[in-house]
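Hi support team,

I submitted a single chain yesterday and got back a structure, but I'm not sure I'm reading the token output correctly. Could someone confirm the output below corresponds to the sequence I sent? I've pasted both exactly as they appear in my results page.

Thanks,
R.
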Amino acid sequence: MLNRTDSVQAVNLGLTWDNAFERLGEGFFTRLAPLPLRGEPYWVARSAAMARELGLADDWWQVQGALPAVSGGQPLAGSAPLASVYGGHQFGAWAGQLGDGRAILLGEVRTTGGGSQELQLKGSGLTPYSRMGDGRAVLRSSIREFLCSEAMHVLGVPTTRALCVTGSDEPVRRERLETAAVVLRAAPSFIRFGHFEHFCHSGRHEALRTLADFVIARFYPDCRDASNPYAALLGAVTQRTAALLAQWQALGFMHGVMNTDNMSILGLTIDYGPFQFMDGFDPARICNHSDHLGRYAYQRQPEIAHWNLFALGQALLPLIRQPDAALAVLQPFPALFSAELDRRMALKLGLPQASDGSRQLVQALLELLTRERTDWTIFWRRLAQQVAGDLRQPVMDLFHDRAAIDRLLLQYQELLAQSNRAQTADLMLKTNPGLVLRNHLAEQAIALARQHDFSMVQSLHDALQRPFDEQPEHADWCNFPPDWASQIQISCSS
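Hi R., thanks for writing in. Yes, this is the structure output for that exact sequence:
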């Protein structure tokens, strides 16, 4: 084991460790301790909600050694740091062996709810899988991941989580010179589609079976009794992925880089990079400046998820053995996605279930929103406020084609004729957030953080924990993005 911190005393935060992934054996990872940040680390932001879930004391961050420990400078007592190996398709092309190139899995801890979370340091230095990279994350990308992952959790979207971000003055070169940071993130598992692809395409089919059996036993126990457990696993992942993509689309969320190594076997949103929440609605929107062909455009996300599932199915074929069995569980994806998206869009309208009427109305609304590039989040929030307070004019004011929106609002009123208005309004206000992490908000917080002013990072995090509440103190954050926001370019380095 290459241990960069052998002589440093371990820090005990009171976490209960298990480290199940480590027990898979050496072929799945390289034991490797984090590389400390150069220079004195400093706090950037912390999530109290994630700390509570891990059972940490309110003042955990004040424990002696806590800051260097979550920055990679001191070991955490009970951890067993390692970097895992995987492969993947990147922008549709097989990239071969990849792996944790800038992340160290510390291990697995028990949570207060009886579950478990793996803890991982992202930005913790070079690993055998870093390829041409430097193993570091920058302050910009770490803040974005921290804010968005915690915000997505509150929105009800399956996602990785984040406990904290720490920074340093260590210089890191990306498009320009930036500073290094580390985000401590959490998930029940960080296993990706790419893990299965690696062991399949390298011909290590026994390791592939070991990994699949581990995932089934830990996360998909219902699959064990199926006639073909590995086909059942593929089917279960297909269902979770379809549900996840429906949530993304309903929120106007774009991931930006849906490579198979960025796809969670648990159906989680993972690896926040060039993500964006939609401003003016444009189905062809490409949020990743590196995505020159638009592979990961908003409207293509469901299609790409299905493609990625086929790649996972190909990787599992040595275990499934029957191509027809794999195809049988992959083919329902479009129907599963469509049904879940219909349900999610009906909820945005305040309807507990989809109907022909809701589907027709949603389609007409999407066509109008597309023509006018109407702000996605603001439209749905104002529609909810209209139902709650009979505030029709703010919705009308979003459109140039007043006759078109007037017709659709009348159609909507007819659809709600038999509904309880108070219940409808309550459902809409709990479904359509008023505040999401728009790119310009993240950019403003990052600009201040570069000057060692972390107040907006923490304030924005706190506000994003209440996305469905009216927040008059943050009215500007819930308003239209400024003109300069359209010029923000987010790439794979973000």
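A quick pointer for reading it: The first helix runs from residue 48 to 53. Let us know if anything else looks off.

Best,
Support desk
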